[in-house]
Amino acid sequence: MGSDAGNLEARLAFLREAERLKDTLRSGVTAGGRQESVAEHSWRLCLTVLAFADLLPDIDPLRLLKLVIIHDLGEIYEGDVPAIHQRADDGRDARERADFHRLTERLPDALRTEFRALYDEYAAASTPEAVLAKGFDKLETILQHTQGANAPDFDYRFNLHYGKARTDAHPLLAEVRALIDAETEALAEGRAARAG
How far apart are CA 169 and CA 113, in angstroms? Predict the structure, then answer.
């Protein structure tokens, strides 16, 4: 199966550019106390999907994995915006979509079309897989917040409401969310007891 060199180089150029996500930081911190990268978040989000895929018999697991791999690539140039700083009218979605288009511009036509369709499917939550991808994204974030070496003033209670509409969208997501929320509540209570 032969491929022309330009086609292969275009794919490599995309991968070289996507490497930037390894240095694109999020507000979350690891258990060791350093800021996590968007790439690390995406990796564990993929692992999260794999860990629960067998409990989702009516879902296409490969499509779900593709969605979670693609979902944060729009943060490659301008970075992640922490949830506490996001606003519905901040233009972030349009900027991230434009950056994703910039990133995928050199890909071969069919691959570029597929990646962009996946990105838009995720953004619109237009399929059962995209609904789950958005929910698992929120779950991975709040799970990290229960494990991270957070600052003394970290607002655990914010997480009890963060992304709730997304995680309430599927019974499995809601069930997992309840377990993580119990941990979050315990952390918030422990912080309040130490402060009092």
Answer: 28
**Bridge-based pairing state of the strands 25-29 and 35-37:** antiparallel
- Work out the number of other CB atoms within 10 angstroms of the CB of residue 191: 17
How far is it, in rounded angstroms, from Cα 174 to Cα 163?
Answer: 11
Contact 111, 10 (CB under 8 A): no
CA distance 44 to 178: 19
CA gap 30, 71 in Å, rounded: 21
Q: Estimate to the nearest angstrom the gap between the alpha carbon of 137 and the chain centroid.
A: 4
Q: What are phi and psi of 87, to 5 degrees?
A: -135, 150
Question: Alpha-carbon dihedral of residues 93, 96, 100, 103, nearest 10 degrees?
Answer: 170
Going by C-alpha positions, the residue among 192, 166, 169, 167 that lies closest to residue 179 is 167
Give the pLDDT confidence of 160-191 residue by residue, as tens digits.
999 999 999 999 999 999 999 999 999 999 86
Rounded Cα distance, 190 and 141, in Å: 20
22-71: pLDDT as tens digits: 999 998 899 999 999 999 999 999 999 999 999 999 999 999 999 999 99
What is the number of other CB atoms lying within 10 angstroms of the CB of residue 38? 21
